[in-house]
Amino acid sequence: MVNTQIFVSPDWLVNNLNNPQVVIVDCRFALSDPELGRKQYQTSHIPGAYYLDLNQDLSSPIGKHGGRHPLPDTHNLAKKLSAMGINSQATLVVAYDDSRLAFASRLWWLLRYFGHEQVVVIDGGYTEWQKAGYPITDVIPEHQTGNFIPQIQTELVVDIEVVKSRKDLPGVILVDSRESDRYRGEREPIDKIAGHIPGAVNYPWQEVTDSSGYLLSQLQHRQRWENLTTAQEILVYCGSGVTACVNLLSLELADIHTGKLYAGSWSDWISYI
User: Fold this and answer.
1) Mean pLDDT value across residues 108-129
2) What is the CATH number of domain 154-272?
3) Fold of the CATH domain 7-131
């Protein structure tokens, strides 16, 4: 199955719930209550959906450096994806959350980083699925036998040394994806130090969707990034490498393919200060 899309509508998904080529993944999570997403999933989710937890599945344990959400162990996540029946280069993975794509985009980016481009997010997320009156369930799907073999795309990610050496070069743009007041250092609810990486420009990740969690039009995404279209390289970060993925998704919607994730992000940067 060749996929050139980035998102699907709830209407599309309800008509493909029994499609054997589709695997649905619930990515709901709350930074303030790490157990909430799993509890919500166990109570109700889209029929057939599996669950992946930001801390347990989509990240590695926190170390001295690497940020608050280091990239997950490749083997461990690949094993979990195989157990969902996901086959490399074949299965369409449909990710959703209820946080304006904050966590679904993390899985979207990770799968592309793993060389699996057959991945989309649900436009509007779980909230809009429920509003439409589509079916929900508390039934946990059985493990399947898939064959997910990662093919790591190393060019999609950068570390602190690359950021330091490249951020001020001509043709390179460093994008901070956090809310503007965090970027300006006026508020810092999570990390020990406020502010931003010198030279970064601010594109808050919440601007990618409207207040209901629906993605803006492709034209609006292109207009949003119009000042960066000639950049040779766009290095994107946030607090811990999660919501930066929402901006990377937006760049793809704008048909800009030069975005790279600084996976450790601000929480990694300040660990060296």
Assistant:
1) 97
2) 3.40.250.10
3) Oxidized Rhodanese; domain 1 (3.40.250)
CA–CA dist 178, 254 (Å, integer): 19
Contact 124/10 with Cβ under 8 angstroms?
yes
User: What values do phi and psi take at 201, rounded to 5?
Assistant: -105, 155
Domain boundaries, the chain: 7-131, 154-272
For the chain, where are the E strands, in sequence order?
7-8, 22-26, 50-51, 92-96, 119-122, 157-158, 172-176, 201-202, 233-237, 259-262
238 is annotated as an active-site residue: yes
d(CA 48, CA 24): 7
Of residues 129, 123, 118, 117, the one with CA closest to residue 104: 123
Q: What does the pLDDT look like over 120-146, one tens digit per residue?
A: 999 999 999 999 999 999 999 999 999
Give CA–CA dist 238/116, Å, rounded: 23
* Active-site option among 95, 157, 238, 251: 238
**Confidence bin at 3 (pLDDT 50/70/90):** very low
Please tell me if the domain spanning 7-131 has the same topology as the one spanning 154-272: yes
